[in-house]
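Researcher: Structure prediction, please.
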Amino acid sequence: MQQTHRTRVKICGITRVEDALAAAEAGSDAIGLVFYAGSKRVVTLQQAQTIVASVPPFVTVVGLFVNAARNEIEAVLSAIPLGLLQFHGDESADYCSSFRRPFIKAVRMKAGVDLDAASQGFEQAQGLLLDAWDAGSFGGTGQTFDWKNARPTAARSRIILAGGLTPANVAEAISTARPWAVDVSSGVELAPGIKSAALMQSFISEVQRV
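Model: Predicted structure follows.
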């Protein structure tokens, strides 16, 4: 079955203005800013404000949080005009919804995960982001998972595929999983948090080719 829509792209882990601009120029629909101290791609409020000020129209800015306290998230929201929240930890559906902002919820694809069951309760989420499971990390590891497991019956139109995507494998991933969108971080980097304009362009070109 062929794709019947344009697969959207989010480039996550942006830490520099030049990378945000290069992502937008390449055609990214969204950029991700990480507000999790355990990440190599974490940004400060000041960094985030500078980056967001540079983002052109119609590029969504996503803020990523991992088991963050309410006051931490509210501090970010009061300082930065985020278009979408991404909860990448063990947050409950009620907690995610309580900020009254559009949000997506990450599902770590451990062996045996029932994706339809995992999506229950998160009906208010705009999307489910499927990432590779790793015992010691909440994403950004460059690891993949079996993309055939990313094809639920109920939530397919809300699936965002992540985990180890690169320009070399994203076309195959889309053909296999048929997600609404894809999310890349380490697969377009020269070093953690330092993006490659050429790799971002190549990645998006491969997405558009499918």
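Model: The first helix runs from residue 17 to 26.
Researcher: Thanks, that helps.
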